[in-house]
Amino acid sequence: xxxxxxxxxxxxxxxxxxxxxxxxxxxxxxxxxxxxxxxxxxxxxxxxxxxxxxxxxxxxxxxxxxxxxxxxxxxxxxxxxxxxxxxxxxxxxxxxxxxxxxxxxxxxxxxxxxxxxxxxxxxxxxxxxxxxxxxxxxxxxxxxxxxxxxxxxxxxxxxxxxxxxxxxxxxxxxxxxxxxxxxxxx
Length: 186
Description:
Blueprint: E1 5-6, H1 22-25, H2 28-41, E2 46-48, E3 58-62, E4 77-97, E5 107-120, E6 126-132, H3 133-146, H4 157-171, E7 181-182
Function: Removes the formyl group from the N-terminal Met of newly synthesized proteins. Requires at least a dipeptide for an efficient rate of reaction. N-terminal L-methionine is a prerequisite for activity but the enzyme has broad specificity at other positions.
Binding site for Fe cation: 99, 141, 145
EC number: 3.5.1.88
């Protein structure tokens, strides 16, 4: 099932997501598959639970789409359930980011280059891994979603003022998009 992507302005995007219970984890496989289908249908590289209206600690990524063919960096495709970033380190680098929930808006975000994260994968295995480069960036962006943070929160005050009207238009359902979206109720 492909979910509509929740648009900027919906309160679910600002909620700190809740962990899945042991019982809920037994049913998470279908949700993971649906989230990958939704992400791919919207041509995204990541998608978090709040972006489909679920305030749960889950996100999926496929950083392979962000990695240059000549790069030695390896991409990663997988689900992160009940995730917790343990540590972030390394040189901070700035890169333009966008978001499926905020179509048509991009902005420079600075993030550390590496992280260690503890999570449950789609096979329900508990894992603790380190990631760096583009994969770390995609994880950090999606992890922010389950913490109620959007990439626009990192933008400079000037950039925030420049996009204010565009954000208001998105929250009113006036946004150019090529995938199914759900806009906040008026």
